[in-house]
Amino acid sequence: MFAVVSLFLSCWTVSQGAKVNARASSRWVWFGLFLVGLFLLLLGYAVLIPIAVSISIGGIASRVNSAATLGAALALSSLFKLGSEIASSRRWLASLIFLVLMSGSIGLASAHHYTIWQDYANAWQIQKGIWRSMFTLAPSFADDSYVLITGLPRPQGIMSPLNAVWEVTAALRLLYDNQSLRGDVLWEGELGGIGQDAAEYRIRFLPDGFTPRRSEEIISYEHLVLFEFVPPDGLRLIEGAPPWAPPSIPALRTNPAQVKTTPSYSPARGIIGL
After folding, report:
1. Which of 6, 38, 76, 260 has its CA 20 to 30 A from that of 210?
2. Would you say 72 and 109 are in contact if contact means Cβ atoms under 8 Å apart?
3. Looking at the DSSP assignment, which residues form a beta bridge with residue 146?
């Protein structure tokens, strides 16, 4: 969008070159277009106010910027054009400055896009390794099993593997072809303080069961299967009580009866190359 608007402005400038006093009035035109673009930019974000969505320039949340794309492209392109004409009275030099500014902006945007792509690609590779390890350790699960992957570090980039609760549950149900399965990730930084009072956005471990995030349901430890993340992309089935489990909750352990040796099959496993 940015490149298309900029090309249009460049062609329009050339067409104005033969007109009398076009150069003198063009700065006001660019300034006016900048204001129009700024208005469209603010209007594009104003529609988000009623739904209180946070603005992000990276990751899946960046889709909220779509409505402001045209305004941002028009405002920035006009600003570059105005700045280049103010910087030099010579048309060829002003065009060169505009070209440099445009090239630099497109290059930075492309680098940002490539960085985000790399984060997604790395997260996907780790996630594929996790599921492959799980299929080896647990060919299938008993109905109503709750699979908890522990010790997964949060990467420093935009996207991390299994970033949301629904990702684990949805993947388990799809790849094991069992709609009764559920799961979650217990991040590396969450292993401390297990058994203490926790906020609703954390898994709460109680003496007789555990409560998933943002839920009041208490699930018995009889349904629990624990895995430990092994870098770079593997898993280890935790047999018995995990080392981070407090002595006050002896029931917090994997129930081996939930892990079945009979392999399950789902055509969806082709997604991860199985």
Report:
1. 260
2. no
3. 182, 224
